Amino acid sequence: MRSLQSRPASTFRPCKGSNRIVRMRSTAAQPISTMELKPDVAQKLRHAEAVCFDVDSTFCEDESIDELAAYLGVGEQVAALTAKAMGGTVEFKEALRTRLGVMHPSRQAVDKFLADHPHRVTKGIPELVALLKARGQEVFLVSGGFRQIIHPLAESLGIPLSHVFANSILFDHDGRYAGFDESEFTCRSGGKPAAIRHIKEKYGYEEVVMVGDGATDAEARSEGAASLFIGYGGVVVRPTVAAQADWYIMDIQQMIDVLKAAPPANAH
After folding, report:
1. Percentage of residues in the chain with pLDDT exceeding 90?
2. Which of 3, 56, 61, 229 could form a disulfide linkage to 31, CB 3.0–4.6 angstroms apart?
3. Cα(first)–Cα(last) distance of the chain, in Å?
């Protein structure tokens, strides 16, 4: 193993001339050991019927809740709450409720935010999605973010909206904030493994991989849910998450290389 300087709770700064947040990597006292890829992990990735991705700070470089909050003028307050939620120190539904309560986003504000802030897709993701599809491996997005923000991203990469599991902001008839849909899997702690169990049952899958950067992603590696958890630290490194990963990567290209090194399980 080789050592990598860890980067703990994320820090943020606004881009010059905008409300956009840029996630910065900050150093921590403890190093993280980046994992060598084990043969059984590579095999599980290559043979999985589906790969589920977290969206914020994994599929995209953005942390959309924080970016929307910055756009609404409450960025620092909400970013601190996000760091607690992603670090696993606060129950996710309560953190979501608190953040949305601070933001109070209207439908008009969300629409304007989407128009002004296109997604910054993580380098390698379009190629990885295309490769997985070519191999017959389905792609799902399982996120604590918002459908209103994630659906356009999914459509741009050819991912069916039925393969998106995320939260829904609710609005009243005047477009004012009216809460969030508490029936969504991912509005609560333990929601991502629940979503993956649902995916497995619905589609008859046996092997599903989860890829993500946060504590809620690591939770997906549980009985009856994901058989493999790949931690991603290319945007922000979370030491507690790295410690739980079957494989911890810093670059999406690492997954591409592993998949390209062997044919798909159903190849003839």
Report:
1. 74
2. 3
3. 36
Distance between CA atoms of residues 198 and 21, nearest Å: 34
Distance of alpha carbon 238 from alpha carbon 10, whole angstroms: 9
Q: Where do we find the tokens 């109070």?
A: 104
Residue carrying the six token digits 């590579």? 42
pLDDT in tens, 188-240: 889 999 999 999 999 999 999 999 999 889 999 999 999 999 999 999 999 99
Of 54, 62, 217, 246, the active-site residue reads 54
Question: Residue 43 has which token pair?
Answer: 């095999």
The verdict on pTM exceeding 0.70 is yes
Please say if 246 is a catalytic residue: no
Is residue 251 flagged as an active site residue?
A: no
Is residue 264 within 8 A of residue 46, CB to CB? The reply is: yes
Query: And the tokens for 79?
Result: 């970013």
